[in-house]
Amino acid sequence: MDNLKTNRELNQTDISLLMGIAPQIGISINNARMYERLQEREKRFRILAESAPDIIFILDVEGTLLYINPAWKKILGHRQEDIVGRNLVAFVEEEDVNRLEQLLKIVRKNKTPIMDILLTIKSLPGIEHNFSFNCAPNIDEGGHVDS
Prior knowledge:
The chain is of the alpha+beta class. It has two domains: 51 residues; 95 residues, Beta-Lactamase, CATH 3.30.450.20. It is 46% helix and 16% strand. It has four helices and four strands. The model has no long low-confidence stretch (mean pLDDT 88).
């Protein structure tokens, strides 16, 4: 808008154009900053989860595994590509399936975590492992449980 070579002053059309695009520029700058913060949080979560000695996983609202950390393979022997996309109940002992499904419903409905629930999960060779299961809902900005 401003021409430094001719030192022309801004006219009303120039000012109107600048006033029109200024909010969009501000929104874009704000979005870029928020995106950077989100990427930093994601990076911190990945570092924490990838190095944790305990199994960490993320489920969708149906119980499908969206993410597992490397501890799952170390402890249970299953590879990530064989787990992600499958329902958690596929790995829980039959007698725990109904209880797990009910607990996950409670977490979604009440939007509160559950702690220290004992479940048995089968390892790749079929060995049963008892785990203390903790689950917390991921609540989106609208207050809905999304995973």
